[in-house]
Fold this protein.
Amino acid sequence: MDYILTTSNLCKRYGAVNVLNNISIHVEKGAIYGLIGKNGAGKTTLIRVICGLQYPTCGEYSIFGVKNSDREIGSMRRRMGAIVDSPAIYLNMTAEENIKQQYCILGRPNFDGIDELLDMVGLSDVKKKKASHFSLGMRQRLGIALVLCGDPDLILLDEPTNGIDPQGIIQIREMLIRLNRDKQITIIISSHILGELSKMATHYGFIDKGSIIKEITAAEIEHSCRKCMSVKVSDMTSLIKVMDAGGMEYRITSGNTADIYGEHNITDMAVALKNEGCNILGLSERDETLESYYINLIGGGKNV
Amino acid sequence: MSDLLRSNFRRLAKSTSFWVIFFLMILCTSAACVYEYRDSLGVTSGGPTLDDVFFQLVLLIPILLSYSVSIFTTSDYDYGTLKNKIITGCSRTKIYLANFVTNSVSSIFILLGHMVASLSVGIPLLDSFELEPMTFFAYTLSTVFMVLACAAVFTMISMLNQNRSTAISFSIASVVITIILVTFLFNRLNISEYKISYIPSINDITSQKIPNPEYVSGFLRSLYQFIIDFLPTGQSFQIGMMDTVNIWVMPVYSVIVIIISTAVGIIFFRRKNIK
């Protein structure tokens, strides 16, 4: 497995508070890795440590196979970009000047490609406009443009859609998917908006109280979050007979209820149960989503 | 580090606060020349000279630099753009040194603005310099190194403070406090060794020189003089008053200040958790 980023028992302590507790994550090359956790879980701190803005208290991480303690880590960082907390842009400069600044920092010999970059993020019409006059969404897009200046292989985004309108969220999502698909850029996104994340992430890392609870692929979640129908009947034996005959995947939840997974013809099932002399007392669809998966994982249902 | 310097100088060229300080310096110098010229009208000898204007306004430079260096350096924290440099692999030492070099260049530029203004406005109004060439060179050299020492100290304060207001306040406060200290020490050192005591007698009053108990001597005198010579604001004070004791030692002290403040700044900046 080709991992572009790994962390090994990474810890970060502020005084007596453990913000990160032995975090170990593995991000595959070419993945869109969604980092999910509630406020204060440690997502931003983890990203800050990986970006070199803060130092780990213990543990280590590797970027492109190079450990953070190695001298070559600086050159590896040239292949990554990140937006941490909020886009870092000079508000007193135009979009074009901001990108030129980033080009200088990266040591690029000329300013070629700026127009293409601005076009990619949808800011070509406002390149001469000062960033202080930009909306939040425009600043976020400019931040992404700055990240892309160095043709990175790895991008870390800390809640990139915070405060963005729905149209802006869609544009950013489509841009990230395009970057991942066309340029094979590995993307790590921390976000609260599970619905948005579920539309693009290929892998997930669930973090809570500074620890990784679970790492899972989108395919595995898809398998777990199947369509589910909850059935309440008068005769469980008959229901089991019908479900087995129909090749249905099911789980008995109580003496007279069962969860049936997958999509099935309800009419056929009802007719079959009637023929067995079994009455349907209740029927509801309960599709599991990323949100419910997360709630079940973190155990937050009791807090709702 | 050349990449960082290129980026910094581009940013400096677009910095409104830098240009305001620069032109403010030129304005103050030009105004001082005109003011001194007006003072010299009708005075046949002993009036103000170009040397006075050229070095007097050196007193103003640490105050201006405390603001211009802090504003420029902390803008990276204010906008969060320091993150862009660290994330893309620029070493913290290089980031610090690039900021120090940029601040040094901008400070020297402000000094040059003052010098050019005093020459271009002062020479037509106040004639030429009257100082001995070697003395003039010594004062100028001390001024240049003093400016670099100020740049180093204010860079350190600004790089270690993530809050712009705090950095500016600390920098300005450091100038004000040290100026007050230096003024006090300077006045103490200027107390004369002897004072005249008048002894009345029956038909006459005689005077005699007696040792002044207020006079600072020995180790304390050396200490006071060292503090004034060592602090950049002390140096600017002496240069501005054109009353120096150890003019050739002051650049050495400035170099020591530069080395210590830069080393301390780099050490603590490397350990800093960037928020």
Notes: Chain A has two domains: 3-223, 226-287. Residues 166-183 of chain A form the longest helix (18 residues).
